[in-house]
Design a protein that fits this description.
Dna Ligase, domain 1; D-amino Acid Aminotransferase, Chain A, domain 1; 239 residues; binds magnesium ion; alpha+beta; binds adenosine-5'-diphosphate; six-stranded antiparallel beta sheet
Amino acid sequence: MNIVNEAKKIIEKAYSEGRRHLWEDEAKYLCSLYGIPVAKSKVAKSEDEALKIANEIGYPIVMKIVSPDILHKSDVGGVVVGVKNDEELVKSYRQILENVRKRVPKARIIGILIQEYAPQGLEVIVGAIKDAFFGHTVMFGLGGVFVEVLKDVTFRVTPVSREEAEEMIKEIKAYQILRGVRGIKPRDINALVDIITKVSKLLEYHPEIVEMDLNPIMLYEEGKGAKVIDARILLEPKS
Ligand code: ADP
Ligand code: MG
């Protein structure tokens, strides 16, 4: 299988359906083609399909609304984490649809994503934007308040080498936390460097990506890797 061609197919499929964004499972598949570790997931279009996928992946699982009209899924009751069995799955399936229909009545609903549960790690973010002049810039920071409130983030123009990725990680103010502080064990920096450089490579091969957001990535203890649990990719308008 040729990775670049396989990835291009996903992008072409989105364009052919008149979409500029990839569905979450497509974005994750694209990442996985470049060796980025992602939480297994698949979109279900019915309760029966959801049950089948959940049993393939194995409980506990996570369920998320899939809709082009919803950017922040948990804000509208569109995410349930840690579903333990078939019974809970059916309940959560109905609950998510009810929440979304109530809060965003006009939202087009594509289905519900059934996803492997990722144990809690330190949540980090790797993102990218494309500038008409500079090309792609990769962003890195810790998740949650670190990015949203403290704006503790760092940027590099692609291509980002391993050395540059290491610099990025060291230059955020929260670097101390990654190295380990009271109660928090040192994190797998190497896995993070891998993700940053692989994102950079992916962007080089797919210049039509204008925005990318891996948020969050669970970063585990040294030697235990990382896992992308939410991925958003936006394409430039079709020329
Ligand atoms: P959104 O950002 O659109 O609200 P996310 O997919 O990021 O939705 O999920 C919201 C939060 O739920 C995440 O920040 C994470 O804390 C938790 N979560 C999501 N998916 C998983 C998963 N597969 N395993 C464990 N926790 C998850
Ligand atoms: Mg998210």
